[in-house]
Amino acid sequence: MIFRGPESLQYPSRKEFQHLGEIMHQVREIQNRAHLSQLTSAVGSLIPHRFAANGAFHMKKRELQIGHSTYGEEHTHLYATQGYVSDPAIQLLQKTHIGTVSSEDCLDMPIPREVITLKLDAGIKTCLTVGVRGVLGICTYYAFSNFDQKLLHKLRTMMQILAPHFHLAYLRATTCAEDEPPPRDMPVLTGREEEIMRWVAEGKTNWEISIILHVSLNTVKFHLKNVYQKLGGVENRWAAVAQWQNSAAGLVVPAPHRHQTTPAPSLVISPPQNRSPASSQANAMKKA
C-alpha cells in the first residue's frame, strides 16, 4: 500500500486560512442533527460541489450510518449498505492508525467495477471522501462530489484542516443531551503553549512561529509535542487546534461509548447544491 500523508498537501494562503477560521467558528454552533447539513455546505464556500454527505462509521460493527446527504435517496441507500466497504477512506480507517484519511491518500487501492458503475449511474464524476478516527472505534465520514477536478488537491488540504472540527461537531450533534457526560477539566496549557496555539490557528508554520517568537524551530516543535499530549494525544496541529478551540469554548465532547444511545431518526436527504465549480487553484506554499 502506497500512502500519501499530510506532507504531500499544499499549505493554504493567508486569505484561505481566514476563511477556514470562519468555518471553524461556524461549526462550533452545531448542536443537533438538524444542523448536520452545515458541516458539508460550509465547504461549498471554499470548493463548490454538487453532492455532499456526512455520517458515522462504527469500526467494531463495520456499519456506516448517514447523518445527512444530498446524493439522492437511492444512491445514499446503496452506498450506506454496500458501496462504503470499498471506499478507500473507510479501508484506511480500518487498516491504519492515522487520525484523518482520505480517498486520495492511497491511490493504489482498487475500486470494484460495481462501485464505479454505482457512481456513474448517480452522475458522480469527481469524488473525495474523508474519514476521521475517533476513540473506541467511533469515526466520522464526509464525502464531496462533482467539484472542479483542478481543485481536488485544494479540497483535500482544506478537509485535512477542517475534518477534526467537523468530527467533534458531528459527535455533539448526534448525542442526546441527557446522555452527555459531565464537563471534563479543560487542559491547562502554559502561556507559551497558548501563544503558539494562537499562531497555529491563524495558519502560521512552525518556522514562521519561531521567527515571530524569536525562538528556535526545535523549541516550537517541543512545545507543540507537549500540547498534543495535553490535548489527549492528538497526532497533528489541525487536530490540536480543534480540541483546543472546542475546549476553550466550553463545548463538551461526548464520550464515545455514549454516542447514539437512542435510535437515529430517519435519514435526512436534501436536494443537491446547484453551484458552478470554480476554476482557480490554490498556490502552493511551504508546509509546516
Describe it for me?
By secondary structure, the protein is an alpha+beta fold. The chain has 2 domains: 6-175 and 254-269, Transcription factor LuxR-like, autoinducer-binding domain (Beta-Lactamase), CATH 3.30.450; 191-248, Arc Repressor Mutant, subunit A, CATH 1.10.10. Helices cover 39% and strands 12% of the residues. It contains 10 helices and 6 strands; from the N terminus they run ααββααβαββαααααβ. The chain has helices at residues 14-27, 37-41, 73-81, 88-95, 113-121, 152-173, 191-201, 206-213, 217-230, 237-248, and strands at 51-58, 63-69, 100-102, 127-132, 138-145, 268-269. Strands 3-4-5-1-2-6 form a 6-stranded mixed beta sheet, with helices on both faces. Helix 1 runs parallel beside helix 6, helix 7 crosses helix 9 and helix 8 crosses helix 9. The longest helix is centred in the middle third of the chain and has 22 residues, at 152-173. The protein is globular.
Provide a compact summary of the structure.
This protein is an alpha+beta fold. It has 10 helices and 6 strands; from the N terminus they run H-H-E-E-H-H-E-H-E-E-H-H-H-H-H-E.
List the helices and strands and how they pair.
Layout: H1 14-27, H2 37-41, E1 51-58, E2 63-69, H3 73-81, H4 88-95, E3 100-102, H5 113-121, E4 127-132, E5 138-145, H6 152-173, H7 191-201, H8 206-213, H9 217-230, H10 237-248, E6 268-269
Parallel strand pairs: 2-6
Antiparallel strand pairs: 1-2, 1-5, 3-4, 4-5
